[in-house]
Task: structure prediction
Amino acid sequence: MGFSFTDNSFIEAALVILILIPSIMVHEVSHGLVAYRLGDPTARDAGRLTFNPIKHIDPFGSVLLPAMLALANGPLFGWAKPVPVNPARFVNPTAHMAITAVAGPLSNVILATILGRLVFPSLSGIPEELVGDFIIINLFLAVFNMLPIPPLDGSRLLPLVLPERGRELYRQFEQFGFIILFALLFFLEGSLDFMVDWVEWLLFNVAL
Result:
């Protein structure tokens, strides 16, 4: 069974990908730019401080998985190739890694606010529904990435408040991060419903 170009589900999946790809590209480039400003040129040297999608797209995480989830009315989930960061090049590795991590979700909030609320509505020919989808997807990316689960950006904040022993234990826990994420997303129904409240708070208190 296939999908024709007139199927609403196919169109919705395509729109999700068209919004998701540039949004996660900006997210990753923001990591690299902040890391560079803090003393780590690794992303620049790897040619990742660019908006060329070929440099960032992960065929499965950026296209195939989001498309399958959109077609199945599943949770929004996807990723780009992470930009390389070398914390050893930072003056303060723990703090500067946290700042670098926060730059990604913050860029999505800025996209939702600047483009979604100010630029797009001033342009003719852009459907209001598409603008709304752009805002919501970027806010979801911001909230989701701030969860304190490796390898998400929020996990880089916990070392700021953990003692050295706690940091060592947390580093051992990192290898199980993806397993926990997939369990939360696909097996523990309703475990991430609280994200809707956070997105709504951002929508009405920041992005509006």
